[in-house]
Amino acid sequence: MEKREKLYEGKAKILYATDDKDQVIQYFKDDATAGNGKKKGTVEEKGIMNNGISAKVFEYLQANGVPTHFVSKLSDREMLVKKVEIVKVEVIIRNRAAGSLCRNYGVEEGKTLSCPILEFCYKEDKYNDPLMNEYHIKALGIATEKEIEKIKEITFKVNELMKKFFLALKIELIDFKLEFGRYKGEIILADEMSPDTCRLWEVGTGVRLDKDRFRNDLGNIKEGYQEVLKRVTGK
Ligand code: UDP
Prior knowledge:
The protein has helices at residues 46-63, 99-105, 134-139, 145-167, 212-215, 221-233, and strands spanning 3-9, 13-18, 23-28, 31-34, 39-42, 70-73, 78-82, 85-86, 89-96, 112-122, 131-132, 171-183, 186-190, 198-202. The protein is of the alpha+beta class. The structure holds uridine-5'-diphosphate (UDP).
């Protein structure tokens, strides 16, 4: 697979074209941001760890019938993925209260929710990724009703699968964010699933193994990601 020009550079990843028009290379950087880019830094080897974790997660999801953009892991920091047209919504599931749910609704951190909360946010940094609902998505032409239904179906399935996956590793999936894309007319899971995009608490101790270590200056950021990688890959 030949790597060609840079197509897009985001906050944590770069996309490169390949000689196949339907596939791109997703390169994971060490850059870390929080609060919509207000806090910036780097976490040594984060790109390597997130690529490793995401590849394992996508393999597991794919094996369990979830359509994803993942094709193969190419190197430490690169994976080959299907080239999708990104749907401009971030889809969040919350199993326990954390982050913006606590800030916006006055809920105590760690409160168990009686059912998972699904949130949509408009994926647009310049407007601060505002919360939106299905009417916004449909009325603004961001996705069709059928696509929204598919996105919700996949998201809840990912929640059930990933809760089980992490629990077997003594990790609780508190919340996470997914992104979807269109590929040959179908909705598939895209982007990444890693400690950058999930809140992961160690079972029993509540130790944070995710980007909250960076967001909240908890220290040992790299160690948190490394612990997740170690458990996920069994190494
Ligand atoms: N999240 C993400 N990217 C975003 C916003 C949120 O990956 O742009 C993830 C975040 O890591 C967490 C979940 O989505 O696992 C819920 O995030 P929340 O809304 O609490 O975000 P906060 O403002 O606290 O970072």
